[in-house]
Amino acid sequence: MAAGRALAALLAALLAASAQLLPREASFTISLHKVDNTTVTIKLRPGVSPSCRIRIKNVIRSDLKIKSGENVTFTFTCSTPEKYFIMEIQKNIDCVSGPCPFGDVHLYPLGLPRLNRTYIWDVKASTKAGLELKFSTPWLRQIEPGETCPDSISYNINSCIDKATVNIGTFCRNGSVSRVKLLGGVIMSLHLPWHSLLTTSGFNIANRASIKRLCIIESTLKGESSITLMSPNYPLGFPEDELMTWQFVIPSNMRASVFFHNYSLSNCERKEERVEYYIPGSPSNPEVFKLSDSQPANIAGSFNMSLQGCDQDAQNPGILRLLFQVVVQLPQVDENVTHLVDLSKEKNMTVTIHLEGWPSQIPLVTEPVCLICKDPRTCDRALTLVSGAVYRISFLCKDLSRLRITAEKGIGCMDIRWCQRKVYSLSVPKAITRLPIQLHKFIWKLLATDLINVEITSPTLKLQQHIPEQKCNTSYSYSIVSATPETELNVGVFCPGGSIEKIQMRNNITISLKTFGKRFINESIPQDLKMSFVPHIKDECTFTVSPNPKAKVYLQTPNWHYGLPPYISISWFIIVPSQQTARLGFSKDRMGIACETGRAYINIKEETLGAEETVRREDELLPQPRNMHHNFWVNISNCKPVDKTQLTLQFWVTFADKQIARDL
Description:
Layout: H1 2-21, E1 27-31, E2 38-44, E3 54-56, E4 59-61, E5 64-66, E6 71-76, E7 85-94, E8 103-106, E9 116-124, E10 129-135, E11 140-143, E12 154-161, E13 164-173, E14 177-183, E15 185-192, E16 200-209, E17 215-220, E18 225-230, E19 243-249, E20 255-266, E21 268-270, E22 274-278, E23 287-289, E24 299-300, E25 303-308, E26 311-312, E27 318-329, E28 339-342, E29 349-355, E30 371-375, E31 378-380, E32 382-386, E33 390-396, E34 403-413, H2 416-419, E35 424-425, H3 430-433, E36 438-448, E37 452-457, E38 463-465, E39 476-483, E40 488-496, E41 500-505, E42 508-515, H4 520-523, E43 530-535, E44 541-545, E45 553-556, E46 569-574, E47 580-586, E48 595-597, E49 601-606, E50 613-617, E51 626-628, E52 632-637, E53 640-641, E54 650-657, H5 658-663
Parallel strand pairs: 7-9, 17-19, 34-36, 44-46
Antiparallel strand pairs: 1-6, 2-5, 2-7, 3-4, 3-6, 8-16, 9-15, 10-14, 10-16, 11-13, 12-13, 12-15, 14-17, 18-27, 19-25, 20-24, 20-27, 21-26, 22-23, 22-25, 28-33, 29-32, 29-34, 30-31, 30-33, 35-43, 36-42, 37-41, 37-43, 38-40, 39-40, 39-42, 41-44, 45-54, 46-52, 47-51, 47-54, 48-53, 49-50, 49-52
């Protein structure tokens, strides 16, 4: 019996010792004064299993609400309550029936458990007075819905007028928004993660006279920077017939530019939705713009921008919303240097100056801005100039090598009697080559009726077809496409310095000159590409080739990557010098297709009296290399191939003196 009592005593001692080693549950006491008008709510996070509970004395519960005047002590039944619980601390402030507690806003009460928490200040105020939220540095940065802050600390501001609530926006720390002025009441929220050590709210509340608009948002920008801002309720609609203002505080030696990136308009019954700018020193304040206009740029110093809504159609209101960017930069050294672009004698031509990669690539917000200006205050990332006018443009850009020029010119012929003898020069106008901007692409669109065709010639430089066996290494090339409403034929890519003197094509033609570097200006001086309209030709495309006698020339069918379209016929006319013999060969021994309908043919014939024609079908071997003593034709005609087969052919031509050819 004595042994049993001793064993029991030993077990009790061990249990007591182990109990001392186990971690004690942390105890929290929240005491709220009656006059605080504050409520603290602790509840389970949505979607989390209730593996952890709240213990008050001997009562276990999953949530807790502490009201003003209450003093509650509690613990959690787990060591990591931040995984299971969130906390809301709401303070109601009545500025209608009594004086407002203006000044710094404190995080109260102290000694809260470390949970993800939201502080909410619900301030009731009359619309006859205004409230001002002033933020301490480093101020705030507005973010789009769904975006998160790097430190998980965010502010949300809601305006309350009567029973209507408007979401002014969500903000992170470290930005330019230094104060927000509101009409009437405000619900201000501060979201903190459980691990945050923040001990101050970062703002104070001040009383102001009525601002006579929904809100005023002040942004202070001290140096080169870029900010993005949104209209209240974005991406939902700005309140009907409301007015708000953004105030931008900018040093007078800096320049600001405004860009609208995303906006939509509501359906107005009365008034018109608009943006108004107040720019100190402007002779026409306020300056009024539509949302679809290019917005002001190169503004010196501070300015205000206001958004005005309208009375909306009750049946189909639509929504007014706006997301925009303000870029602040130092003045450029050459911002006062203007460049003359004289397009007064040009017709049917547009010239667009833009950032490299435009329009598919939108520059990052952090990238230095490059602007093109047609007057000191009308600037944008892309500027389009039209023929028939003279422009004086300037650039707000530190690095002009980021800019490119894309131009387009239309030439048409509806009656061959008026066009047949006219020769058009397809060269880049000097008004473009004189600019300090690299030409990216110049496009000629040649339009004619069905019975009128296009002939392009390069009598001096001649053209070389760009193919793997003879790649172009010049600073520019021409891409040629023939198109009808039903089909498109990629004739090929060509560069100067080859053997093709002339190309005749049916249908409407697009010729795109594309540059590859800064050498273009020097190499392009002798551009000799010419174009004329000619009567109807029988083939889809005809090449006239006059090779260099010392070179091996490769030629291939158009639409190389997709094969010749069905029933298309292409011809090459090869000029053979009188003292030489040409040798013709094909790069493969068969056409490589099977026909579903019709036949595919290759026809070879010298242009001399009594010459025999060589003909091969798609199911026959192609001719072996052969000598040609006179000018000759090569014609390739397609059938309708069966699925997954396409007609692509390449051939070559070399030359030798006739005596040497006979010896061979």
